[in-house]
Design brief:
Blueprint (H helix, E strand, L loop, with lengths): L1 E7 L2 E2 L1 E5 L9 E6 L33 H4 E4 L1 H9 L5 E5 L7 H14 L4 E6 L7 H4 L4 E4 L10 H4 L2 H9 L3 E7 L5 H11 L6 E5 L4 H18 L2 E2 L3 H6 L6
Parallel strand pairs: 4-6, 6-7, 7-8, 8-9, 9-10, 10-11
Antiparallel strand pairs: 1-2, 1-5, 3-4
Helix pairs in contact: 2-3
């Protein structure tokens, strides 16, 4: 079984859209959003995947979500069937933290590839969890977003040296750092230097859940990316659809 987020109570968050971030920005993709996370970002825009009633980990609006309305368990074969029924052949598995469900994901991805060979599989992860070996063999691209200090996560939970080193050495990995203020840039530079992350595989992205905030932060962040030799990514889905589920 896989534990998924919902768009509405009882409706799993499996949908087709344009990839809004990172190296695949603008590509038609089929998304699967899983539930549960081992970290707790103060600015997380998918807190409904982890901040359930009784979870007091800090979040900027302190909202808690009712678990049964926001979480759904489905058999891997059912998830695979819903994926192959959609048109895009690029699968983006996101969360929450999807690698917490590695064994189930491996089974689901195998079923997708069996039904429709040629799927490109991307996984979006916070980078603190090692991929299950059976899943890792089936992944084409990792979008790793290590959480900086402004996320509110302790570094010993979010920035695990052996994991960051392994990701940096994997040519399938693209790093995406969420940046809120210019002060965050020194931390990005320090992590790049510590793990020898190539600029070609390092993206910086403004934090924000509305177009006005993203545009404001993009002005100075895009200039910083140019000066540092990093890549810049916007949040296309926010501009197109707003901060909404299933987009």
């Amino acid at each position: 079984m896989l534990t998924l987020a919902t768009v509405n109570p009882g409706e799993a968050e499996i949908f087709a859209s344009l990839q809004g971030e990172g190296p695949s920005l603008g590509r038609p993709s089929t998304f699967v959003r899983l539930s549960r996370c081992n970290l707790a970002c103060r600015w997380c825009d998918t807190a409904y995947t982890w901040r359930f009633t009784g979870d007091n980990r800090p979040h900027r609006d302190d909202r808690a979500f009712e678990r049964t309305a926001n979480q759904l368990a489905l058999d891997e074969a059912e998830v695979a069937a819903r994926i192959v029924a959609l048109s895009p052949d690029r699968l983006v598995i996101t969360g929450g933290e999807p690698l917490l469900q590695g064994a189930g994901l491996a089974r689901m991805v195998a079923l997708v590839r069996q039904a429709r060979p040629g799927f490109h599989v991307e996984i979006e992860t916070n980078g603190s969890v090692a991929p299950h070996p059976a899943l890792d063999r089936q992944v084409d691209q990792y979008n790793v977003s290590p959480k900086l200090a402004h996320s509110g996560n302790p570094a010993d939970l979010a920035l695990i040296p052996e994991r960051l080193a392994a990701w940096a050495q994997d040519h399938r990995t693209f790093f995406k750092f969420v940046v809120a203020t210019p002060e965050d840039l020194a931390e990005v530079a320090a992590l790049q230097a510590a793990y020898a992350i190539p600029g070609e595989r390092l993206f910086v992205m403004p934090e924000g859940t509305d177009s006005a905030t993203l545009r404001e932060r993009s002005i100075w962040l895009s200039d910083a990316a140019l000066q540092a030799g990093w890549r810049f990514t916007d949040r296309l889905h926010i501009h197109l659809y707003g901060d909404t589920r299933g987009t």
